[in-house]
Automatic annotation (TrEMBL):
Domain of life: Eukaryota
DNA-binding in keyword set: yes
Protein name as it appears in the record: Uncharacterized protein LOC105061561 isoform X1
UniProt-annotated stretches for the region Disordered: 405-427, 514-541
Listed GO MF terms: DNA binding
Origin species: Elaeis guineensis var. tenera
Residue ranges of domain HTH myb-type in the record: 444-503
Residue stretches spanning the membrane: none
Pfam families registered for this protein in UniProt: Myb_DNA-binding
Gene name of the record: LOC105061561
DNA sequence: GTAGGGTTAGTC
DNA sequence: GACTAACCCTAC
């Protein structure tokens, strides 16, 4: 089994190479990555995503989300404030994600999508940004752009001016500038750093008459890497720790990984120095490495390219599709992506094992379906026309469904992070759910109960504070990912329950009333306390 | 789209 | 069985 840490080094290296997106996806899902995923690898993913977006000229909400995650990663790593290039890229992409709807306007569209985008991106997303710890991303340029967008909503002249600008090219350029800066700051991939150093050492050994054996290389590696650790010359392991914190265990693992390559070479003086001068850098070499994995550590799915590719289509990390210019927009999906980064750990117990992988998926889903700018529609995705467009493979989180039955469950846990795994078939043995007969042939089946997570509750609470109770549709649209499994009515009901509980807790109700409890009680307490807070004001937006 | 009353599943 | 949260239905 490949060591997860080594796998992360390999993946970091591959992601920095000009390999095809599908290959990056394959490796991402196939390699046994460590948990938690090292921040450096996370950032590599994000940069790769940005690079992919740029190369496909597909800037969407996912791009914006990637930039937000990078800012968060940098901040968590101790960075004081986002770089100017990052803030500039964010502002430019936000403008493009909005202005694209003006370019893509259909004759019958009076700008509805544009207005919606302004509301979604600038009134919700950027406004939230300003109030968050990520406020560093809010540059003067972004503020000015926000003013312009809001002005464009009411002023056709401003909209025309916006349409006349090449916001896409400006955004692409800004992202490129940031990418160059970020990649320069990150330095070469860790494996490349090691390979270069090892190759240099090996050549020196050859000149000094070494026997070229793997055993000697082992000894030299130990000395070499020990010096690297002391000098801190290497960029350090992918988790961002500096070389000095690179423990002996990791050191030995690294050596093993390098030495494993040496085993393939003839031991009698045939261990070519070339073998260690560099690690795989081309797609062909990566493919070769992949074949090695295939025979050792990679699961069967990597053997089944076609099947795996289908999975990628559903949930790719690196998109190869390009909806640019087609009006595709999924940023309101991406907008709440951070829920996978910010979720209350207690809410993620059921996905703990896959949490980090979920992060990777979420990156991509920026669209949260995870597919920034792609036309590949997956769960909760938005199609290129901006409308919900579920595929046949999509899971409708609010659709009526058969209840769980252990005999027919396809998933070991209903808490599976992948809802599509939660397919259930009706039981002939037990039927705890109601089956109201709608007509002679159709049964109305209740959805399975899904307990609200603290993240959902907190998001709802904050949303109501901000937008008022009663604006459930809008609140849901502001947090599509967090509330992807909830309907507007669910939000309303939940708020009703929350208010009911709070009033009971603080003793706002007479004791007799509290004792009554039960049916219908929550409705009354809710109605008396929250009757469409500032609703009329809000609806002016 | 939302409010409000009713129903049901899950928990203790 | 009581209680509660989640879900459903229907009127507006």
């Amino acid at each position: 089994m490949l060591d997860p840490r080594i796998a992360s080094w390999i993946l970091e290296f591959v992601l920095r190479q000009p390999v095809e997106d599908w290959l990056a996806n394959e490796l991402l899902f196939a390699l046994p990555l460590p948990s938690p995923i090292p921040p450096r690898l996370k950032k590599t993913f994000l940069l790769r995503r940005l690079s992919s977006d740029v190369s496909h000229r597909s800037l969407a909400g996912s791009t914006l989300f990637s930039l937000e995650l990078i800012e968060e990663l940098d901040r968590s790593s101790g960075a004081d404030a986002p770089s100017d290039s990052l803030a500039a890229a964010y502002a430019a992409v936000a403008v493009e994600c909005t202005a694209r709807f003006l370019r893509g306007r259909l004759d019958g569209d009076r700008g509805g999508n544009f207005f919606e985008a302004v509301n979604r991106i600038w009134s919700c997303r950027v406004a939230d940004l300003e109030r968050s710890e990520a406020a560093g991303l809010v540059s003067a340029t972004l503020r000015e752009a926000r003013r312009e967008m809001e002005e464009a909503v009411v002023n056709p002249i401003v909209r025309v001016g916006l349409m006349g600008r090449d916001t896409k090219m400006a955004a692409l350029d800004a992202v490129r500038v940031y990418l160059e800066e970020a990649e320069k700051e990150m330095g070469p991939p860790y494996l490349e750093c090691v390979a270069e150093t090892v190759g240099e050492e090996w050549r020196r050994s050859s000149v000094t008459g070494s026997d070229g054996s793997v055993g000697e290389l082992d000894a030299k590696l130990r000395n070499l890497l020990a010096r690297q650790v002391e000098d801190g010359r290497c960029d350090g392991p992918p988790d961002g720790d500096r070389a000095k914190s690179f423990g002996l265990v990791e050191l030995e693992k690294l050596e093993e990984s390098v030495l494993d390559r040496g085993k393939d070479a003839p031991k009698q003086g045939g261990c070519s120095t070339d073998k260690f001068e560099r690690l795989p850098a081309t797609a062909a070499e990566v493919m070769k490495a992949k074949n090695v994995f295939r025979s050792s550590v990679l699961p069967a799915k990597i053997d089944n390219m076609k099947e795996n590719q289908n999975q990628m289509d559903l949930n790719p990390v690196f998109s190869v599709n390009d909806c640019a210019g087609k009006g595709n927009e999924s940023d309101h999906d991406a907008m709440s992506q951070q829920n996978l980064m910010d979720q209350d750990p207690s809410d993620l117990k059921h996905v703990e094992e896959n949490r980090e992988r979920a992060f990777l998926s979420s990156i991509d889903k920026g669209t949260k379906d995870g597919n920034p700018g792609t036309c590949t529609c997956t769960r909760d995705n938005i199609d290129c026309a901006g409308a919900q467009k579920p595929s046949l493979m999509d899971w409708n989180p609010t659709a009526r469904r058969f209840e769980q039955d252990e005999d027919f469950s396809l998933s070991p846990s209903e808490n599976s992070p992948n809802p599509s795994n939660n397919l259930r078939f009706p039981s002939t043995k037990r039927r705890k759910f109601s089956l109201a007969l709608e007509d002679n042939r159709t049964f109305i089946i209740r959805r399975r109960k899904r307990k609200w997570s603290s993240l959902e509750e907190e998001t709802l609470r904050k949303a109501v504070e901000r937008h008022g109770a009663g604006n459930w549709k809008f609140i849901k649209s502001c947090h599509p990912e967090i509330f992807k499994n909830r309907t507007e009515v669910d939000l309303k009901d939940k708020w009703r329950n929350m208010m009911s509980s709070e009033l009971l807790i603080v003793g706002s109700l007479p004791l007799e009333r509290q004792k009554e409890g039960g049916k219908g009680d929550h409705q009354q307490t809710y109605n008396h306390s929250f009757s469409g807070l500032e609703k009329s004001h809000w609806k002016k937006i």
